[in-house]
Amino acid sequence: MDKKLVSVYGSLRQGLHNHKYHLENATYLGTFSTEPEYTLHSLGSFPGLKENGNTSIVMEVYEVTDEEDRGIERLEGYNKGGNNTFYDKKEIQTPWGLASTYIYVSSLPSSTIVESGDWKEFKNNVLDYYSVSNN
Fold it and tell me: Model confidence over 61-102: pLDDT tens digits?
């Protein structure tokens, strides 16, 4: 069986809400930053990754089973060969080899850009802001 690699940048990362449902039992290979060729956007509780940007994105790479891969496809609303309204699945180069990741297919306003390229850091800063401002 060939190994399948997936590279995640949003809610599937360790410590975030979808990780325990989809990647808790997958083999974690490591974290890396992409070349500065993407833009990360906040869509509220999850991000959207766009190509042809100028930001390095922090990603975690996992080796997944076919079942885990299908579960992530369902989460992302991906339908191979279908008309995908949220994400398209593409392969990118990682330090561990080619891995699939999800690219947001619709246009997004510049007001939603996550400048750091790190969704986990962004979410933690938002939570810190709200906890301080509510005290």
Answer: 999 999 999 999 999 999 888 888 889 999 999 999 999 999
CA distances (Å), 62 to each of 28, 50, 108, 112, in order? 5, 21, 28, 27
What are the structure tokens assigned to 128, written together?
């810190």
Note whether 92 and 98 are within 8 A (CB): yes
- What residue has token string 């956007």? 41
pTM: 0.91
The length of the chain is 135
The first and second tokens of residue 13, run together, are 């990362």
Question: What span, in angstroms and rounded, lies between the C-alpha atoms of 83 and 54?
Answer: 27
Greatest CA separation for the chain: 53
